[in-house]
Recover the amino acids of this structure.
């Protein structure tokens, strides 16, 4: 195949660039050819993506519901009657000796039972807390993992670990890896989008969707759920749509003239980028326009919920984000992260959990049902989880007068997944009687990542990127696929 | 069965028992192909030393040697090869087809199992191995192969400048660089591109040396100046510009992973990080020789009687990320900072990926884990300190502030005096004086309130005014630069961290340098950072010169002679011009490590001045540019994209150095970080160069990130150059860029009120450093006419809905709006943000 022909065939170039721009580079000879063409001088970067999926993918898109702060597993997902029995007792010193806490004073720490009531739901009979009435109607689609574990007992290291496979800042996040590996399917939207419902902000800020050492076009793009969705999407005041259209025509005419004079392929890329940007200006606002959604849908998600009990606007905002996640998935966005902050209940755990579940339970369940109804759940992986769980011990931080919360606990916690090839209606793993450590089928954070990549048809050991002389992976040097999670895999 | 290894039946000729690796490499590499051809075609017997040894050495031994034993296998000697690897024997003498070695190297579908991750052996090479095994796998007694010596570790010897080459009118030999280049063009049968035209050259020089575009006046003057030394004069002038230090300082800050905050949760500001940045700019402007520049940054505090500036320089390694989240394991993160310091030192000066040896021996380069922790030991006893700095501008700023504040304060104090109780004692008066001395932000009213007539009307008001005035009092400068100091007490021992886990101590180690490099010379028994810094520049150190001159080259051609500037190891790229690289590396030392002299040398070459268009030589359009037969054309760095806009519009505030600034940032961007305050800088400060934008690690400035600025988590030796729709949106719609278009358009309308064509020429000259060609002008005039029509219609529509509109403004408005749109078009052209 003649490289020259490739680059100057405008149709093919357009097609190639469409796939390349919102960050990506899809599979196939075309992109590789373009990439190598651009790369031959080494002056224009075009990271060559690692070919096609390693095996048949089950998931094509992912919605990651990230629960920032560390939700309490024994109050939501993992009933511990024994812990309730032992409420107020101390832990054996032998268990505590090797453990690190962020704030707990080991000497005087006491176990703290849960006031929640658990019941069985669905055909599978999964136990869930009374704080999750809506989710309990979806349990047959959910795989609940009660045996998650990690090492990071502080927020940002834990979040970075969960999002990027490393506790250090500067590594690519899961969404970046997936787009690097698989390319983009969206013509008009970025391939990795972030929506956030935040109180005082995220510990890691933009590093929570960073592309780390991967090229920057693989980074997530922060969206707003109202107004103009992306930074600089709207024309400056005074520039009307006809002016913008005429300007773009002139820009591209002049750039084309330059392309003919100098022949540098980066000019062709620039022309394509402007055409895509203009298209994005036309189509992205439509994403936020919910007028086409039925009242039933809006009610189901709770977009219309009264904010009476809450002035923060979180209720409507989070519901809206869940609905937008579905709309993005429908438009080919590969990875959407929804942050909900914060579940960091060192104190006032009961009220805090009530509020957070009131914000999120209904929209999350609505999202699962909506995806299923539209036939999207099969290929859409939904992940729910935070950076760690919380201690069975009550938190007795030095300056606390009363013990009303729990400290960080990465040694055992819960997460759930649905759709995208995940076998629903099952619980994986167990913790011990008091929920201290994993008793059966441990799933490390790296294992979870390996499994997610597997669902997307990628071998976590083969999805690598050379940086500073080393081939880096999302799973660093470990990780095993949790076969039990994957449908029809044994 | 493996008798042939133990008792070689044939030993051919006489040769040294141990053949030094270097001579093998050099002697055999060129000969090999010929030999292999003969072997393929004819039936000459295989000779191990001549035919097989070089293949094993070059293609197998970098992993399968006595040190690394990858897969349990070493192919260095007959004995080791005979032992085989983890999966058993690899050679079955006399039976090639059953030998795993042959199996592993036979390609299938263009790939072979071995050499792992590299191009497979050629057919002739495979055939040689097959025949060697088939004929009994004879390996002469005592013959030991040596692993190949990595090119970058070979001694640095100044190559002769090619003499058998003549310049041409198109490509005059202006200095030795050109002779090396021309020899390569000749050997590769490449035609060099013509020299770039003068308007391209001046813009290239301005952007490369200062990062700012030339003014229209400068362009016109240079294009018209045919004096033979005009170019040289321009180069000298630009190297003397203080903006040179900014541009080349920013490159260094990429390597130094500079940021204005700590990183991680909290991401607290480092309010005085700028002192180090200012040091870098200043040091580069005064052309502090690169060896001294490096020495002061790594060990300025250990120099005899270090100056304040030399101590500030040690801020280099204080730019590491720091985790201060409540409850974190502080020792773990202290360790991580030191690991980053070792890795950064390796990448910046040695081109070595030392980080690969943090948890285990380096898999590709000869660096052991123990050696990694020996380097770690150099940095383990550096205390982190703050040193007081007072810059004259800070004092001036403070005094200026006080000049405004003091009279207001005095006025309020005299108003307050009217409320004093009658007949106060001396003690009471001194209590008042103490409470109102103004040295704290709050007045201790409790201690003095009884001394006032608080019932008198207006008291509350005066009191409130006084409190407010006090809080607005300018703070006296109290700048603390982040630096290193030698740790005197509680000195730490350093241990190998088993599997990289900091709390699992292995062998105790002393500071030392890797064995593959020249020995460390140390002043005292215990080597220190100063010894390490001097060792980097020791004349026998083969790496530092090559690595540092490559960094300069990279900034002037868009790509280094070694395209992996931080990896000169086995997995890094090979130099495209090895002779030229070595010559430049020795020349850099000869020039006394003067960065300016090296830049001057390179930019004065014909090679630098080549045209950059891909079709400069029509017959060579499909040839890659690794041999640099033309210059490269590439998009400028993020900060420069912004600088170009500000400069073209005239908004740019050219203040050098000082503290960081905050241009406007939408709330929703700032809000993703934890309690991020982003008060927009006042006055012209927000129009300062992009390199001064406050870099908060968890909320990096979006415009910079969209254009591939590094995230500053890790040392960055080479930025990405992506080309995305988000960049297009930024250039089109970012309010700051739009403002630049508006300002430039207004001034062009003012200069050419009734001549849009002349205005367009002015815009081109300002933005692109050239006048438009006819076709470009006609495209823009056509756009101008259309935009006028659109804007007139829109303003008429506006008029019909608004009453009492000033007619004059109405007729002027479409002209201005259309000129803004035209300016915005030019500012969105690929050429505007490209360095050709």
């Amino acid at each position: 195949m003649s490289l020259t022909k490739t680059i100057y065939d405008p149709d093919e170039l357009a097609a190639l660039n469409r796939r390349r721009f919102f960050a990506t580079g899809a599979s196939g000879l075309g992109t590789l050819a373009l990439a190598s063409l651009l790369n031959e001088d080494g002056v224009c970067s075009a990271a060559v993506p690692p070919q096609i999926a390693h095996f048949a993918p089950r998931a094509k898109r992912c919605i990651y519901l990230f629960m920032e702060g560390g939700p309490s597993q024994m109050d939501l997902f993992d009933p511990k009657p024994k812990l309730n029995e032992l409420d107020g007792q101390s832990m054996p010193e032998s268990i505590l000796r090797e453990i690190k806490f962020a704030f707990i004073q080991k000497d005087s720490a006491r176990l703290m039972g849960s006031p929640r009531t658990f019941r069985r739901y669905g055909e599978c009979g999964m136990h869930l807390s009374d704080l999750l009435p809506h989710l309990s109607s979806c349990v047959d689609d959910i795989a609940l993992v009660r045996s998650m574990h990690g090492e990071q007992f502080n927020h940002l290291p834990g979040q970075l670990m969960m999002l990027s496979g490393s506790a250090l800042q500067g590594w690519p996040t899961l969404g970046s890896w997936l787009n690097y590996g698989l390319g983009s399917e969206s013509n008009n939207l970025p391939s990795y989008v972030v929506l956030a419902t935040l109180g005082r902000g995220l510990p890691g800020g933009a590093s929570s969707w960073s592309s780390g050492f991967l090229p920057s076009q693989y980074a997530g793009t922060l969206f707003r759920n109202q107004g103009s969705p992306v930074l600089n999407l709207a024309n400056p005041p005074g520039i009307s749509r006809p002016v913008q259209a005429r300007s773009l025509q002139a820009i591209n005419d002049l750039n084309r003239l330059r392309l003919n004079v100098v022949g540098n392929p980066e000019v062709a890329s620039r022309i394509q980028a402007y055409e895509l940007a203009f298209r994005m200006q036309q189509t992205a606002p439509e994403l936020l326009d919910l007028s086409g959604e039925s009242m039933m849908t809006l009610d189901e998600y709770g977009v219309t919920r009264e904010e009476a009990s809450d002035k923060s606007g979180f209720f409507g905002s989070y519901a809206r984000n869940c609905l937008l996640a579905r709309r993005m998935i429908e438009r080919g966005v590969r990875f959407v992260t929804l942050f909900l902050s914060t579940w960091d209940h060192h104190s006032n755990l009961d009220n805090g959990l009530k509020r957070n579940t009131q914000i999120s339970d209904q929209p999350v369940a609505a999202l699962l049902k909506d995806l299923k109804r539209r036939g999207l759940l099969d290929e859409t992986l939904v992940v729910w989880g935070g950076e760690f769980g919380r201690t069975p011990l009550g938190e007795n931080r030095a300056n606390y007068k009363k013990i009303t919360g729990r400290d960080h606990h990465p040694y055992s916690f819960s997460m759930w997944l649905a759709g995208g090839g995940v076998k629903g209606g099952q619980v994986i793993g167990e913790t011990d009687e008091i929920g201290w450590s994993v008793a059966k089928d441990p799933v490390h954070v790296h294992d979870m990542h390996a499994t997610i990549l597997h669902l997307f048809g990628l071998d976590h050991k083969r999805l690598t990127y050379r940086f500073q002389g080393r081939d880096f992976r999302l799973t660093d040097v470990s990780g095993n696929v949790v076969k039990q999670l994957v449908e029809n895999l044994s | 069965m493996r008798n042939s290894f133990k008792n070689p039946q044939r030993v051919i000729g006489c040769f040294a028992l141990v053949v030094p690796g270097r001579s093998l490499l050099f002697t055999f590499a060129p000969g090999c192909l010929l030999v292999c051809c003969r072997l393929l075609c004819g039936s000459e017997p295989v000779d191990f030393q001549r035919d097989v040894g070089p293949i094993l050495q070059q293609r197998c031994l970098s992993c399968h040697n006595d040190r690394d034993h990858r897969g349990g296998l070493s192919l260095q000697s007959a004995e080791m090869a005979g032992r085989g690897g983890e999966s058993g024997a690899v050679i079955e003498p006399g039976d090639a087809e059953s030998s795993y070695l042959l199996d592993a190297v036979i390609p299938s579908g263009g790939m072979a199992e071995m050499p792992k991750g590299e191009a497979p052996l050629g057919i002739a090479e495979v055939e040689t191995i097959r025949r060697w095994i088939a004929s009994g796998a004879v390996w002469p007694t005592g013959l030991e192969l040596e692993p190949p010596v990595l090119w970058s570790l070979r001694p640095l010897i100044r190559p002769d400048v090619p003499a058998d080459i003549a310049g041409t009118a198109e490509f005059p030999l202006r200095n030795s660089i050109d002779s090396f280049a021309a020899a390569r063009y000749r050997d590769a049968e490449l035609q060099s591109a013509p020299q770039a035209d003068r308007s391209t050259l001046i813009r290239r020089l301005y952007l490369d040396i200062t990062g700012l575009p030339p003014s229209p006046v400068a362009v016109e003057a240079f294009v018209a100046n045919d004096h033979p030394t005009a170019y040289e004069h321009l180069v000298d002038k630009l190297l003397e510009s203080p903006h040179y230090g900014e541009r080349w300082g920013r490159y260094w800050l990429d390597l130094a992973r500079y940021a204005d905050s700590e990183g991680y949760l909290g991401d607290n500001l480092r309010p005085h990080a700028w002192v180090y940045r200012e040091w870098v700019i200043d040091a580069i402007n005064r052309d502090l020789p690169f060896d001294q520049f490096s020495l002061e940054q790594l060990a300025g505090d250990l120099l005899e009687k270090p100056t304040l500036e030399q101590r500030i320089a040690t801020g280099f390694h204080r730019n590491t990320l720091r985790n201060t989240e409540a409850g974190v394991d502080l020792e773990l993160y202290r360790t991580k900072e030191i690991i980053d310091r070792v890795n950064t030192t390796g990448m910046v000066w040695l081109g070595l990926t030392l980080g690969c040896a943090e948890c285990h021996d380096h898999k590709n380069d000869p660096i052991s884990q123990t050696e990694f922790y020996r380097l770690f030991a150099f940095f383990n006893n550096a205390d982190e300190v703050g040193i007081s700095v007072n810059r004259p501008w800070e004092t001036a700023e403070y005094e200026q502030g006080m000049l405004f504040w003091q009279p207001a304060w005095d006025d309020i104090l005299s108003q307050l005096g009217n409320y004093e109780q009658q007949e106060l004692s001396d003690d009471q008066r001194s209590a008042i004086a103490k409470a109102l001395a103004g040295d704290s932000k709050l007045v201790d009213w409790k201690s003095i309130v009884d001394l006032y007539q608080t019932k008198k009307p207006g008291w509350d008001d005066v009191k409130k005014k006084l409190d407010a005035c006090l809080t607005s009092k300018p703070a006296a400068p109290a700048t603390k630069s982040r630096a290193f100091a030698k740790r005197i007490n509680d000195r730490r021992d350093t241990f190998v961290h088993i599997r990289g886990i900091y709390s699992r101590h292995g062998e105790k180690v002393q500071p030392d340098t890797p064995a593959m490099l020249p020995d460390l010379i140390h002043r005292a028994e215990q080597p220190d950072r100063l010894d390490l810094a001097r060792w980097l520049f020791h004349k026998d150190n083969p790496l530092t010169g090559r690595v540092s001159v490559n960094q300069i080259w990279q900034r002037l051609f868009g790509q280094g002679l070694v395209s992996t500037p931080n990896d000169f190891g086995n997995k890094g790229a090979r130099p495209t011009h090895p002779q030229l690289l070595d010559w430049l590396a020795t020349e850099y030392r000869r020039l006394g490590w003067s960065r300016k002299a090296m830049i001057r040398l390179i930019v004065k070459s014909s090679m630098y001045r080549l045209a950059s268009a891909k079709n400069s030589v029509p017959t060579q359009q499909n040839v890659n540019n690794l041999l640099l037969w033309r210059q490269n054309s590439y998009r400028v760095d993020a900060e420069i994209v912004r600088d170009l806009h500000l400069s073209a519009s005239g908004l740019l505030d050219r203040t050098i150095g000082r503290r960081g600034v905050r241009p406007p940032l939408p709330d929703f961007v700032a809000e993703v970080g934890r309690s991020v305050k982003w008060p927009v800088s006042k006055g012209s400060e927000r129009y300062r160069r992009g390199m001064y934008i406050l870099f908060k690690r968890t909320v990096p400035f979006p415009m910079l990130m969209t254009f591939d600025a590094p995230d500053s988590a890790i040392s960055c030796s080479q930025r990405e150059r992506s080309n995305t729709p988000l960049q297009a949106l930024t250039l089109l719609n970012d309010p700051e860029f739009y403002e630049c278009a508006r300002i430039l358009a207004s001034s062009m309308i003012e200069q050419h009120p009734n001549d849009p064509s002349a205005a367009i020429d002015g815009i081109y000259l300002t933005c692109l450093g050239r006048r438009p060609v006819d076709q470009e002008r006609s495209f823009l005039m056509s756009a101008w006419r259309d935009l006028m029509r659109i804007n007139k219609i829109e303003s008429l529509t506006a008029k019909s809905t608004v009453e009492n509109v000033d007619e004059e403004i109405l007729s002027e408005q479409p002209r201005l709006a259309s000129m803004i749109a035209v300016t915005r078009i030019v500012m969105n052209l690929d050429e505007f943000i490209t360095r050709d």
User: Anything to note?
Assistant: The first strand of chain A starts at residue 61 and ends at 68. The longest helix of chain A spans residues 349-373. Chain A touches chain B through 89 residues (CB under 8 Å).
